[in-house]
Amino acid sequence: MDFKELYRRKLTSPAEAVKLVKDGSEVWVGIAVPIPVTLVNALLEREDEVRDITINTVVSLYPQINWGGQNRDSNIKIDCGYPIVGRDKVQNGDFTLTPARFWEMPRVYTDPAIRPMNVAMTMVGPMDKHGYFCMGLGADGTTSIARHAAKKRREGDDRFAVLVQVNNKVPRTRGDNFLHISEIDAIIEQDQDLASLPDEPITEEEMTIGRYCAEFVKDGSTIQLGIGGIPNAVAKVFLEAGVNDLGIHSEMACDTMCELAEAGIVTNRCKNFLPYKSIFTFAMGSQKLYDWIDDNPGVEFYPVNFVNDPHIIGQNDNLVSINACLEIDLTGQICSESIGWKQMTHPGGQVDFVEGAFRSKGGASIIATQATATPSNGNGQRISKIVPNIAPGGIITTPRSCSDYVITEFGVAHIKGQSIRQRVMNVINIAHPDYRDELRFEARKRNLI
What we know:
Layout: H1 3-10, H2 14-17, E1 26-28, H3 37-44, E2 53-60, E3 76-83, H4 87-91, H5 105-108, E4 119-124, E5 132-134, H6 142-154, E6 161-166, E7 174-175, E8 178-180, E9 186-189, H7 204-214, E10 222-225, H8 229-241, E11 247-248, E12 252-253, H9 255-262, E13 278-280, E14 282-283, H10 287-293, E15 299-301, H11 304-307, H12 310-313, E16 319-323, E17 327-329, E18 334-335, E19 338-339, E20 342-343, H13 350-359, E21 364-368, E22 372-373, E23 383-384, E24 386-387, E25 405-408, E26 411-414, H14 420-429, H15 433-445
Parallel strand pairs: 1-2, 1-4, 2-3, 4-6, 6-9, 7-15, 10-11, 10-16, 12-14, 13-15, 16-21, 17-24, 21-25
Antiparallel strand pairs: 5-8, 17-18, 19-20, 22-23, 25-26
Helix pairs in contact: 7-8, 8-9, 14-15
């Protein structure tokens, strides 16, 4: 097979490529950084020509995408779980979202009995001499969805298609995150700056929380961290404390992981599952992070139904998972997605890693949060994030039966295996002191203590 000739035949313009998207299509465009902006905009420009198309993603980072005019009545609708750009459109109902456990997403979006995606659009690096395109920053659900669409297309169903935007700025990474030219129906070439996240300063409260979290991590532990001030604080504590030989098995590659690896703290040599490799399913951070993962033999990306499978996670001993939340009730229910009915984010892989850490010998899952918050739309008054009840409409991301540890700047609350009475007292003890009497009163009123 002459791969260069095949490439030439499939190379086309963005406008021609998106004509492969039929009316009624469910279109998957990847997660976060690998979203192909040029292809998405070309499809949106067909708004008046098409009917009943939905563009599906999870994290939206690019302000260059022209979906400002899309709403619930558009011919092209948007399903987006974590719109960093355009969050107001989820909250006002212009966009919708599909709740899903992250590790289940490939099955949900390929199973004909559930909701199969029939078009995959993603950003890739240049083709290699073997005919492979590297997806670089996101195997996530894209690998499975694209391969399923390619299979259906080979079987003669022209409702399915795989479209790629070749971008020379995409890093080449290792693992199971490649598409072959034989699986692709249309290629466009368009370089695109990779979306990056700003560096967030660490507060004093976050450093205190980071120190509590770090007490669970010993030499040789495997870690999963998210993004934000608390994970950054945990990493800083690791750097100060001189912990050794950490491993990484985490859904997201972020700058924190890069810093720990460059400091020699992450070696992966003590992992008993996929040793000597940092394992991820997607990446989101700075250009420094993207440079670190480029052609790095110690970093591998795999589909999310592998990386986030709780059974796979649990095969690493001493795995410590650290994630954030928005609200916690007295019995240990964790709300990480909404403030009341107002959707803020996607559930992501929080529950996957809560369950996976429990399966890990010596593992622990931590929900870490500051004890209070100051709402941006309020009068500047501080509120407690530990509450008698989750706010009406609030989404329970991690049920109380699964919660393990909750940490604030005031200490550690053990939840797993504790009675209602004991866990309520544990949670109250890590609330801000100004709210503890009120929480005790509410707990007694409900006969919880």
